[in-house]
Amino acid sequence: MSEVEIGKAGPRPASLGEVFLAFTRMALQGFGGVLPIAHRELVERLRWLDAAQFVEVLALSQVLPGPNVVNLAIILGDRWFGWRGSLAAAGGLLAFPFIIVMALGIAFRQFGGHPLALGALRGLGVVAAGLVISTALKLARTLKEIPLGLLVGAPLALATAVLVGLLHLPLLWVLLGLGAFSVGATALARRRREGR
Amino acid sequence: MDWSALGLHGHAWADIGRLALHFTMLSAMAIGGVLATASDMHRLLVIELGWITDSAFTSSVALAQAAPGPNVLFVPLLGWNIAGLAGMAAALAGIMIPSSLLAFAVGRYHRKRPGSGVIRSLTSGLAPLTLGLLLSTGWVLMTPTRQDWRALLLVLLTVGALLRFKISPMWLIALGAAAGMAGWV
User: Fold this and answer.
1) What is the mean pLDDT of the segment spanning A64-78?
2) For B174, which residue in chain A has the nearest alpha carbon?
3) Which are the contacts of B163, defined by CB distance < 8 A and separation ≥ 6?
4) Is B24 a member of any domain?
Protein backbone atom coordinates (compact mmCIF):
# COMPACT_ATOMS: atom_id res chain seq x y z
CA MET A 1 0.00 0.00 0.00
CA SER A 2 1.40 3.33 -1.05
CA GLU A 3 -0.44 4.97 1.82
CA VAL A 4 2.72 6.47 3.33
CA GLU A 5 3.32 8.29 0.09
CA ILE A 6 0.30 10.58 0.17
CA GLY A 7 1.47 13.93 -1.06
CA LYS A 8 4.97 12.67 -1.86
CA ALA A 9 4.34 11.98 -5.53
CA GLY A 10 1.83 13.37 -7.99
CA PRO A 11 -0.33 16.42 -7.53
CA ARG A 12 -0.68 17.86 -4.05
CA PRO A 13 -1.98 21.13 -2.64
CA ALA A 14 0.48 23.98 -3.11
CA SER A 15 -0.47 25.96 -0.03
CA LEU A 16 -2.57 26.03 3.12
CA GLY A 17 -4.91 28.42 1.36
CA GLU A 18 -5.49 25.88 -1.37
CA VAL A 19 -6.33 23.23 1.24
CA PHE A 20 -8.77 25.58 2.96
CA LEU A 21 -10.50 26.48 -0.31
CA ALA A 22 -10.72 22.87 -1.51
CA PHE A 23 -12.43 21.78 1.70
CA THR A 24 -14.71 24.84 1.70
CA ARG A 25 -15.80 23.97 -1.83
CA MET A 26 -16.47 20.42 -0.76
CA ALA A 27 -18.45 21.42 2.32
CA LEU A 28 -20.66 23.87 0.44
CA GLN A 29 -21.68 21.16 -2.03
CA GLY A 30 -22.43 18.63 0.67
CA PHE A 31 -26.14 18.52 1.39
CA GLY A 32 -26.97 15.67 3.75
CA GLY A 33 -23.37 14.50 3.99
CA VAL A 34 -20.00 15.60 2.65
CA LEU A 35 -18.21 12.25 2.30
CA PRO A 36 -19.46 11.39 -1.20
CA ILE A 37 -18.43 14.86 -2.38
CA ALA A 38 -15.03 14.46 -0.72
CA HIS A 39 -14.32 11.44 -2.89
CA ARG A 40 -15.36 13.25 -6.05
CA GLU A 41 -13.31 16.36 -5.29
CA LEU A 42 -10.14 14.88 -3.79
CA VAL A 43 -9.78 11.77 -5.92
CA GLU A 44 -11.49 12.59 -9.21
CA ARG A 45 -11.12 16.33 -9.65
CA LEU A 46 -7.97 17.37 -7.76
CA ARG A 47 -6.24 13.95 -7.76
CA TRP A 48 -4.53 14.76 -4.48
CA LEU A 49 -4.86 11.07 -3.60
CA ASP A 50 -5.82 7.88 -5.42
CA ALA A 51 -8.89 5.75 -4.72
CA ALA A 52 -7.01 3.21 -2.56
CA GLN A 53 -5.45 5.93 -0.43
CA PHE A 54 -8.86 7.54 -0.03
CA VAL A 55 -10.43 4.27 1.14
CA GLU A 56 -7.66 3.68 3.64
CA VAL A 57 -7.92 7.14 5.21
CA LEU A 58 -11.72 6.90 5.07
CA ALA A 59 -11.74 3.62 7.01
CA LEU A 60 -9.56 5.20 9.66
CA SER A 61 -11.77 8.32 9.84
CA GLN A 62 -14.88 6.20 10.23
CA VAL A 63 -13.61 4.01 13.03
CA LEU A 64 -12.43 7.05 14.97
CA PRO A 65 -15.08 8.81 17.04
CA GLY A 66 -16.32 12.20 15.92
CA PRO A 67 -17.52 13.66 12.62
CA ASN A 68 -16.09 11.33 9.96
CA VAL A 69 -15.45 13.92 7.31
CA VAL A 70 -13.75 16.24 9.81
CA ASN A 71 -11.50 13.37 10.90
CA LEU A 72 -10.68 12.75 7.25
CA ALA A 73 -9.77 16.41 6.78
CA ILE A 74 -7.57 16.42 9.89
CA ILE A 75 -5.63 13.31 8.82
CA LEU A 76 -5.17 14.47 5.22
CA GLY A 77 -4.28 18.03 6.17
CA ASP A 78 -1.61 16.70 8.49
CA ARG A 79 -0.08 14.54 5.74
CA TRP A 80 0.24 17.56 3.48
CA PHE A 81 1.21 20.38 5.84
CA GLY A 82 1.40 19.07 9.42
CA TRP A 83 -0.89 20.44 12.10
CA ARG A 84 -1.43 23.67 10.19
CA GLY A 85 -2.74 21.57 7.31
CA SER A 86 -5.19 19.88 9.69
CA LEU A 87 -6.45 23.25 10.86
CA ALA A 88 -6.78 24.55 7.30
CA ALA A 89 -8.69 21.46 6.12
CA ALA A 90 -11.03 21.21 9.13
CA GLY A 91 -11.46 25.00 9.14
CA GLY A 92 -12.39 24.99 5.46
CA LEU A 93 -14.93 22.26 6.09
CA LEU A 94 -16.58 24.01 9.03
CA ALA A 95 -16.24 27.81 8.68
CA PHE A 96 -18.84 28.69 6.04
CA PRO A 97 -21.32 25.92 6.85
CA PHE A 98 -21.14 27.03 10.50
CA ILE A 99 -22.10 30.56 9.52
CA ILE A 100 -24.94 29.26 7.35
CA VAL A 101 -26.36 26.92 10.00
CA MET A 102 -26.22 29.56 12.72
CA ALA A 103 -27.81 32.14 10.43
CA LEU A 104 -30.62 29.69 9.62
CA GLY A 105 -31.05 28.94 13.30
CA ILE A 106 -31.24 32.60 14.22
CA ALA A 107 -33.59 33.41 11.34
CA PHE A 108 -35.95 30.61 12.33
CA ARG A 109 -35.84 31.82 15.90
CA GLN A 110 -36.81 35.33 14.80
CA PHE A 111 -39.71 34.07 12.70
CA GLY A 112 -40.25 31.08 14.95
CA GLY A 113 -43.87 31.86 15.65
CA HIS A 114 -44.84 32.10 12.00
CA PRO A 115 -46.89 29.10 10.84
CA LEU A 116 -44.90 28.80 7.59
CA ALA A 117 -41.58 28.65 9.47
CA LEU A 118 -42.98 26.13 11.93
CA GLY A 119 -44.35 24.02 9.11
CA ALA A 120 -41.07 24.09 7.20
CA LEU A 121 -39.17 23.02 10.32
CA ARG A 122 -41.63 20.20 10.96
CA GLY A 123 -41.27 18.94 7.40
CA LEU A 124 -37.49 19.24 7.53
CA GLY A 125 -37.47 17.25 10.76
CA VAL A 126 -39.41 14.42 9.16
CA VAL A 127 -37.02 14.24 6.22
CA ALA A 128 -34.02 14.46 8.58
CA ALA A 129 -35.30 11.32 10.32
CA GLY A 130 -35.64 9.62 6.94
CA LEU A 131 -32.09 10.61 5.94
CA VAL A 132 -30.62 9.10 9.10
CA ILE A 133 -32.67 5.91 8.80
CA SER A 134 -31.63 5.45 5.18
CA THR A 135 -27.96 5.79 6.18
CA ALA A 136 -28.57 3.06 8.75
CA LEU A 137 -30.20 0.78 6.18
CA LYS A 138 -27.34 1.32 3.73
CA LEU A 139 -25.02 0.17 6.48
CA ALA A 140 -27.26 -2.88 7.01
CA ARG A 141 -26.31 -4.15 3.55
CA THR A 142 -22.68 -4.42 4.66
CA LEU A 143 -23.51 -6.56 7.70
CA LYS A 144 -23.31 -9.73 5.60
CA GLU A 145 -19.62 -9.11 5.08
CA ILE A 146 -18.50 -8.49 8.65
CA PRO A 147 -16.74 -11.38 10.47
CA LEU A 148 -19.66 -11.79 12.88
CA GLY A 149 -22.08 -12.18 9.99
CA LEU A 150 -25.69 -11.11 9.68
CA LEU A 151 -26.88 -13.64 12.27
CA VAL A 152 -24.99 -11.96 15.11
CA GLY A 153 -24.72 -8.48 13.58
CA ALA A 154 -28.44 -7.86 13.07
CA PRO A 155 -29.51 -8.76 16.64
CA LEU A 156 -26.63 -6.62 17.96
CA ALA A 157 -27.82 -3.67 15.89
CA LEU A 158 -31.40 -4.18 17.03
CA ALA A 159 -30.39 -4.50 20.69
CA THR A 160 -28.41 -1.26 20.42
CA ALA A 161 -31.37 0.56 18.88
CA VAL A 162 -33.76 -0.68 21.58
CA LEU A 163 -31.43 -0.02 24.53
CA VAL A 164 -30.53 3.51 23.40
CA GLY A 165 -33.64 4.64 21.52
CA LEU A 166 -36.47 3.03 23.51
CA LEU A 167 -35.04 2.34 26.94
CA HIS A 168 -32.87 5.50 26.97
CA LEU A 169 -29.83 3.79 28.42
CA PRO A 170 -26.73 6.01 28.49
CA LEU A 171 -24.58 5.46 25.41
CA LEU A 172 -21.51 4.86 27.57
CA TRP A 173 -22.99 1.69 29.10
CA VAL A 174 -24.06 0.34 25.74
CA LEU A 175 -20.62 0.96 24.21
CA LEU A 176 -18.84 -0.62 27.17
CA GLY A 177 -21.20 -3.62 27.15
CA LEU A 178 -22.36 -4.47 23.64
CA GLY A 179 -19.48 -2.61 21.95
CA ALA A 180 -16.77 -4.42 23.88
CA PHE A 181 -18.52 -7.76 23.26
CA SER A 182 -18.89 -7.07 19.53
CA VAL A 183 -15.29 -5.95 18.99
CA GLY A 184 -13.94 -8.84 21.07
CA ALA A 185 -16.03 -11.41 19.21
CA THR A 186 -14.97 -9.87 15.90
CA ALA A 187 -11.29 -10.14 16.80
CA LEU A 188 -11.80 -13.80 17.78
CA ALA A 189 -13.74 -14.59 14.60
CA ARG A 190 -11.02 -13.00 12.48
CA ARG A 191 -8.26 -14.89 14.26
CA ARG A 192 -10.11 -18.20 13.82
CA ARG A 193 -10.74 -17.48 10.15
CA GLU A 194 -7.10 -16.58 9.52
CA GLY A 195 -5.89 -19.57 11.55
CA ARG A 196 -7.42 -21.97 9.05
CA MET B 1 -32.78 41.89 16.53
CA ASP B 2 -33.49 40.35 19.87
CA TRP B 3 -30.15 40.55 21.68
CA SER B 4 -31.43 38.50 24.60
CA ALA B 5 -30.85 35.48 22.34
CA LEU B 6 -27.13 35.89 23.03
CA GLY B 7 -27.59 35.43 26.77
CA LEU B 8 -27.64 32.35 28.94
CA HIS B 9 -31.47 31.99 28.86
CA GLY B 10 -31.53 31.62 32.63
CA HIS B 11 -28.84 28.95 32.76
CA ALA B 12 -26.08 29.11 35.34
CA TRP B 13 -22.42 28.81 34.34
CA ALA B 14 -22.43 25.40 35.99
CA ASP B 15 -24.99 24.34 33.36
CA ILE B 16 -22.63 25.52 30.62
CA GLY B 17 -19.90 23.43 32.22
CA ARG B 18 -22.21 20.42 32.30
CA LEU B 19 -23.07 20.95 28.63
CA ALA B 20 -19.38 21.15 27.67
CA LEU B 21 -18.55 18.08 29.73
CA HIS B 22 -21.32 15.93 28.25
CA PHE B 23 -20.42 16.87 24.68
CA THR B 24 -16.75 16.23 25.44
CA MET B 25 -17.68 12.73 26.59
CA LEU B 26 -19.89 12.13 23.56
CA SER B 27 -17.13 13.34 21.23
CA ALA B 28 -14.97 10.47 22.41
CA MET B 29 -17.89 8.03 22.01
CA ALA B 30 -19.17 9.21 18.64
CA ILE B 31 -18.28 6.04 16.75
CA GLY B 32 -20.06 6.17 13.41
CA GLY B 33 -20.37 9.94 13.47
CA VAL B 34 -21.93 12.54 15.70
CA LEU B 35 -25.52 11.82 14.60
CA ALA B 36 -25.16 8.39 16.21
CA THR B 37 -24.89 10.11 19.60
CA ALA B 38 -27.96 12.31 19.06
CA SER B 39 -30.13 9.84 21.03
CA ASP B 40 -27.90 10.28 24.05
CA MET B 41 -28.02 14.09 23.70
CA HIS B 42 -31.81 13.81 23.53
CA ARG B 43 -31.87 11.60 26.62
CA LEU B 44 -29.94 14.13 28.69
CA LEU B 45 -31.11 17.47 27.28
CA VAL B 46 -34.80 16.73 26.61
CA ILE B 47 -35.79 13.84 28.86
CA GLU B 48 -33.61 14.30 31.95
CA LEU B 49 -32.91 18.03 32.13
CA GLY B 50 -35.74 19.49 30.07
CA TRP B 51 -33.43 22.19 28.72
CA ILE B 52 -34.87 22.03 25.21
CA THR B 53 -38.17 20.77 23.78
CA ASP B 54 -38.59 17.79 21.50
CA SER B 55 -39.48 19.94 18.54
CA ALA B 56 -36.56 22.37 19.08
CA PHE B 57 -34.24 19.37 19.31
CA THR B 58 -35.45 17.87 16.05
CA SER B 59 -35.43 21.32 14.37
CA SER B 60 -31.79 21.87 15.29
CA VAL B 61 -30.78 18.59 13.66
CA ALA B 62 -33.05 19.25 10.68
CA LEU B 63 -31.66 22.74 10.00
CA ALA B 64 -28.09 21.46 10.06
CA GLN B 65 -29.08 18.71 7.63
CA ALA B 66 -30.80 21.19 5.36
CA ALA B 67 -27.70 23.40 5.23
CA PRO B 68 -24.58 22.32 3.31
CA GLY B 69 -21.62 20.99 5.28
CA PRO B 70 -20.90 18.45 8.00
CA ASN B 71 -23.88 17.28 10.06
CA VAL B 72 -21.97 17.91 13.31
CA LEU B 73 -23.05 21.55 13.05
CA PHE B 74 -26.38 20.70 14.67
CA VAL B 75 -24.42 20.57 17.93
CA PRO B 76 -23.51 24.27 18.20
CA LEU B 77 -27.07 25.07 17.14
CA LEU B 78 -28.40 22.93 20.00
CA GLY B 79 -26.04 24.76 22.36
CA TRP B 80 -27.22 28.09 20.97
CA ASN B 81 -30.88 27.18 21.44
CA ILE B 82 -30.22 26.08 25.01
CA ALA B 83 -27.94 28.82 26.31
CA GLY B 84 -27.02 31.40 23.67
CA LEU B 85 -23.43 32.17 22.73
CA ALA B 86 -21.91 30.46 25.76
CA GLY B 87 -23.95 27.32 25.10
CA MET B 88 -22.92 27.34 21.45
CA ALA B 89 -19.22 27.68 22.27
CA ALA B 90 -19.38 25.00 24.99
CA ALA B 91 -21.18 22.51 22.76
CA LEU B 92 -18.93 23.13 19.75
CA ALA B 93 -15.68 22.92 21.69
CA GLY B 94 -16.87 19.85 23.56
CA ILE B 95 -17.91 17.87 20.51
CA MET B 96 -14.89 18.87 18.36
CA ILE B 97 -11.79 18.89 20.56
CA PRO B 98 -11.43 15.29 21.85
CA SER B 99 -12.23 13.56 18.57
CA SER B 100 -10.04 15.96 16.57
CA LEU B 101 -7.02 15.47 18.79
CA LEU B 102 -7.53 11.72 18.65
CA ALA B 103 -7.86 11.74 14.85
CA PHE B 104 -4.66 13.76 14.60
CA ALA B 105 -2.72 11.40 16.87
CA VAL B 106 -4.07 8.18 15.35
CA GLY B 107 -3.52 9.53 11.83
CA ARG B 108 0.17 10.04 12.62
CA TYR B 109 0.51 6.64 14.29
CA HIS B 110 -1.23 4.93 11.40
CA ARG B 111 1.11 6.56 8.90
CA LYS B 112 3.99 4.74 10.55
CA ARG B 113 2.18 1.40 10.91
CA PRO B 114 -0.56 1.07 8.30
CA GLY B 115 -2.88 -1.91 7.98
CA SER B 116 -3.11 -2.80 11.66
CA GLY B 117 -5.55 -5.61 12.45
CA VAL B 118 -6.85 -3.80 15.51
CA ILE B 119 -8.34 -1.10 13.32
CA ARG B 120 -10.10 -3.65 11.16
CA SER B 121 -11.55 -5.47 14.19
CA LEU B 122 -12.80 -2.15 15.53
CA THR B 123 -14.33 -1.09 12.21
CA SER B 124 -16.28 -4.24 11.55
CA GLY B 125 -16.95 -4.94 15.22
CA LEU B 126 -18.62 -1.60 15.77
CA ALA B 127 -20.59 -1.59 12.50
CA PRO B 128 -23.71 -3.24 14.05
CA LEU B 129 -23.70 -0.73 16.91
CA THR B 130 -23.41 2.21 14.54
CA LEU B 131 -26.38 0.85 12.61
CA GLY B 132 -28.42 0.52 15.81
CA LEU B 133 -27.46 4.01 16.97
CA LEU B 134 -28.46 5.58 13.67
CA LEU B 135 -31.83 3.78 13.75
CA SER B 136 -32.36 5.09 17.26
CA THR B 137 -31.45 8.64 16.15
CA GLY B 138 -34.03 8.37 13.37
CA TRP B 139 -36.63 7.24 15.90
CA VAL B 140 -35.75 10.10 18.28
CA LEU B 141 -35.95 12.70 15.50
CA MET B 142 -39.46 11.47 14.72
CA THR B 143 -40.64 12.18 18.27
CA PRO B 144 -42.56 15.40 17.45
CA THR B 145 -44.31 13.83 14.45
CA ARG B 146 -44.60 10.18 15.39
CA GLN B 147 -48.40 10.28 15.85
CA ASP B 148 -48.93 11.66 12.34
CA TRP B 149 -49.40 8.99 9.65
CA ARG B 150 -48.57 11.50 6.90
CA ALA B 151 -45.19 12.15 8.53
CA LEU B 152 -44.56 8.40 8.66
CA LEU B 153 -45.39 8.24 4.98
CA LEU B 154 -42.86 10.99 4.23
CA VAL B 155 -40.19 9.15 6.23
CA LEU B 156 -40.88 5.98 4.22
CA LEU B 157 -40.80 7.97 0.99
CA THR B 158 -37.45 9.54 1.93
CA VAL B 159 -35.90 6.22 2.88
CA GLY B 160 -37.27 4.51 -0.22
CA ALA B 161 -36.09 7.25 -2.59
CA LEU B 162 -32.59 7.30 -1.12
CA LEU B 163 -32.17 3.52 -1.14
CA ARG B 164 -33.75 2.89 -4.54
CA PHE B 165 -32.57 5.85 -6.62
CA LYS B 166 -29.40 7.90 -6.78
CA ILE B 167 -31.29 11.03 -5.87
CA SER B 168 -29.61 13.92 -4.07
CA PRO B 169 -30.87 14.38 -0.50
CA MET B 170 -31.27 18.06 -1.39
CA TRP B 171 -34.50 17.34 -3.29
CA LEU B 172 -35.99 15.45 -0.37
CA ILE B 173 -35.02 18.25 2.00
CA ALA B 174 -36.78 20.73 -0.28
CA LEU B 175 -39.79 18.42 -0.48
CA GLY B 176 -39.90 18.16 3.31
CA ALA B 177 -39.84 21.94 3.77
CA ALA B 178 -42.52 22.40 1.10
CA ALA B 179 -44.74 19.67 2.56
CA GLY B 180 -44.40 21.22 5.99
CA MET B 181 -45.24 24.71 4.75
CA ALA B 182 -48.25 23.40 2.89
CA GLY B 183 -49.42 21.80 6.13
CA TRP B 184 -49.29 18.23 4.79
CA VAL B 185 -47.18 16.87 7.64
Assistant:
1) 95
2) A124
3) A134, A137, A138
4) yes
